[in-house]
Specification:
The protein is mainly α and about 120 residues long. It is about 85% helix and about 0% strand. It has a domain of about 70 residues.
Amino acid sequence: MRSPNSSNVLQIVAGVYLIYLAYKLFTEGILQGEMTGGMFFVGIIASAVFVVLGGIFAGKSLYQMMRPQDEEESLEETPAEEENAAEALSAQEDLQTAQPEAGEEAASEETDSPADTGSGE
């Protein structure tokens, strides 16, 4: 099974590489004048997209790598939440079993009284 940190490290490397590509594209292609006309604008847009995507990849992965301490704390809270959920479920089951008993009493009262069938001749 793959470690979550290995995935985060790979995303950080990909993000940094995208930022590097944006830098190289901007400095060598745009600033040195190798891109002119329509390619100039395409180079600017591509550089901006690479910087944004690289920042998102690297930033998200760094955030996830810094966060495991918070996840351990939330895992400690889950048994109490599970206990509360179990209590709520048992209370709901008690209500469901109590409701049919009331319905059965009403049904038994109806069968004890004579029913008017409409053929009262």
